[in-house]
Amino acid sequence: MDINLILSAQTLHLAPQVKRGELVNGTFVLKNVPAKTYLCVTPEQWLILQQFEKPKMVPAVLGSAILDRQCLPLGEFYELVLKAIKAEILLEPGVGPEPVMAYDWSWAVRPKVLARPLSILFCAGMLMALFFRPKFPTTVVDIGAGVLLLSATLSFGEFLAGCMLRGAGGEVYRPRWAWIQVPPHFFVDTDDTVMMSRETQTLVAMAIPTLLAAAAGIAAWHKPEWAFFSLVGLILSVRPIFGGTLAALMRVGDKRAPSDAEHNFLFQPNRRPEIRIKLLLKAISHATTWARIGYGILWTLAIVYWVERLGTAPSWSLPFWRANGPRIAVGAVGSLVLLGLGYLIWELYHWARDRGRARRNTMRLWRQRWFGPDRGNLDESGRVKLLTLSPMLSTLPPPQRVELARAMAMRRYGPFRDLKESSGVPTQVSMIVSGKVSLRRELPTGRTVQVQVLSEGDIIGLHDLADPKFPGYTVRPLTPVTLMTLDRKAAEELIVARVTNEMLTDTILKLPFLRRIALCQNWHLQAINRFARLSQIRSYAPAEIVLGEGQTVPEFFVIFQGDARVSRERRLLSTIHAGEFFGEIGLMQNSSSNATVAAHNGTRCLSIPRNELLRFVTHNYTVALELERVSSKRLGRPIFPLRPGDFRSI
Questions:
Q1: C-alpha radius of gyration, the chain, whole number
Q2: Which residue, among 537, 542, 538, has the nearest Cα to 599 in the 3D structure?
Q3: Phi then psi dihedrals of residue 179, to 5 deg
Q4: Which of 134, 483, 508, 631 could potentially form a cystine with 227 if both were Cys, beta carbons 3.0 to 4.6 Å apart?
Q5: 3-state secondary structure of 495
Q6: Weakest mean pLDDT among 361-370, 599-608, 615-624, 637-646
Q7: Tell me: the pLDDT tens digits for 87-122?
Q8: What residues have CB less than 8 Å from 572, skipping those under 6 apart?
Q9: Nearest 5°: phi and psi at 505?
Q10: Could you tell me the domains of the chain?
Q11: In 552-601, where do the E strands start and end?
């Protein structure tokens, strides 16, 4: 599954024969009837999937959801799409699933008819299994009879479950004899139960445990040696983990069960440690989680009780609990603590591994810049290869890159001294091969300030052409730098004459700036290039209104130079500086601004029109996720889903 292709360019449509189950605990199950595949969703998620009734690409659906104020949290949105594709609820045009035929099951009984008899039978069987003392089978006859009783009970339980499912309107699949299972028994596929009501799901799930409890109780009363295997089957069927019946029923009874898009993630950004820890904390705060833990403790104690009953030791008594109760309690609590510690250690390992990789990359780059080898002896092919570091020079045709590489010379400079040949009116043009360079500009007050930091692949010496309104730049290395240089006159012939003015501005001014601001730190380089091409540089006079309070947000703004002041009802709220941005919340939520942003000192902004930003965001999921994250942090709450009536935000 190519996630990038699916989420950016793949056309999808809703499967034509999708059946919707009953709403249970805030979710319901969708079924692709021919494929017999299921997907548990919330009503809000179903609204998103319904937009694929006509073939659409994922970005189109996301953009529509944002404009209609129906957008899910983006991690949930992308997870929903991937899970729907996996479950064949969403299909590619012209692609159909392999059909799975339902069995013509002719026996049916309404589950409500058996509700009370099954409850009575389960309680009576459990009481008899607890009261009467089972025994280990000691003869071949007892072993055979016990296994035969278990096989017959399981078979009748499967048959009864199929009858109740069919009586509730569900489909039965693949009834067969499971000869290779232990013990061999009749098997019925009752997966369709998830489409039914809570009561039907409960009764179908309890069919086998009820009959096992009755068989174990009756056998313990009549022939204790025959009860052993039925008792083991009962214990395994009601286990608290790995698909046990009662644990599943607790999930059915949960007031807000998670949908399939909210756990067991496929979408890689959802599998980060912080997301998993957030889910863990949410689960810990949920009453159902503690109910499952409590049930697990009771289940374990029940096993100990029956094991003791099968042996020769006396039954548990009050003196036994007085002597051993504290140790049992300490053991249970200690097991939970160890489980929690193990989970935290595992998550900390993943976190430390990711942080370690980032640190190693940083240290590798630092060593390369300060102590890297001198590349002055590179041959022509090596210089041609280095030209691909530059977003602008890499667009030149190969013959022109070869010509340029022949004309350029390799030079290395130490840190913290001005490169006069590249400052003011440059006499040389260079591409940075290794190192960092500070680009400084003189203010009207005479003070010089750093406006950009350039690094590998960036061009210096052409800023007067890329930014003719502010040509006076000073270049100063921050580390030892290696440059590929050529004379300015040759650069105008080999570079400037072969690229557009827009490309000069995008690659020399915008790209280095965008690469270093917090907003774009986690973006793919192609997304940053696209953002630079879409944006325009706008200059504002002091006190000029950039965005007015109550105004529909027409554009997204990133402060390129200078700063701006944010106020509400003429009261100053904050001052924002180069690299900060505004307008994204109003654009993402389709709302108006709740504050005024006015230019202050030498303010220049990168601006992108509303429609262009939405198109850009919806086609780049990494950008969308990062914009959602920073916007939610600034807003103080999740930006998606939109709260009712919340239609005014920066």
A1: 34
A2: 542
A3: -75, -30
A4: 134
A5: coil
A6: 637-646
A7: 999 999 888 888 899 999 989 999 999 999 999 999
A8: 565, 566
A9: -65, -45
A10: 3-91 (3.90.930), 102-238 (no CATH), 272-371 (no CATH), 380-498 (2.60.120.10), 530-635 (2.60.120.10)
A11: 555-561, 563-568, 571-577, 581-582, 596-599
H helices of 132-197, in order, are 140-167
Single-letter amino acid, residue 587: L
Give the span between the Cα atoms of 84 and 36, in whole angstroms. 13
Under 8 Å between Cβ of 259 and 42: yes
Exposure class string for 497-518: b at 16+ Cβ within 10 A, else e? eebeeebbbbbbbbbbbbbebe
**546 φ/ψ angles, rounded to the nearest 5 degrees:** -90, -40
* Closest residue by Cα to residue 628 from 618, 613, 639: 639
pLDDT digits (tens, 9 = 90+) for 555-565: 999 999 889 99
Instruction: Please report the pLDDT score of residue 128 as a whole number.
Output: 92
Please tell me whether residue 266 adopts helix, strand or coil conformation: coil
Of 211, 277, 217, residue with least CA distance to 245? 211
Going by C-beta distance under 8 Å and a sequence separation of 6 or more, which residues neighbour residue 9?
A: 57
Task: Taking residues 156-177, report their average pLDDT.
Answer: 94
Query: With the CA atoms of 21, 23, 25 and 31 taken in that order, what torsion angle do they form, in degrees rounded to the nearest 10?
Result: 20
| Helix pair angle (227-237, 198-222), 10° resolution | 160
- What's the chain's average pLDDT? 87
Structure tokens at 152: 């017959």
Q: Which two tokens stand for residue 252?
A: 């059915």
pLDDT at 643: 64
- Nearest Cα to 74, choosing from 589, 559, 452? 589
How buried is residue 613: exposed, middle or buried, by Cβ count under 10 Å (0-12/13-18/19+)?
A: buried
Percentage with pLDDT > 70 across the chain: 94
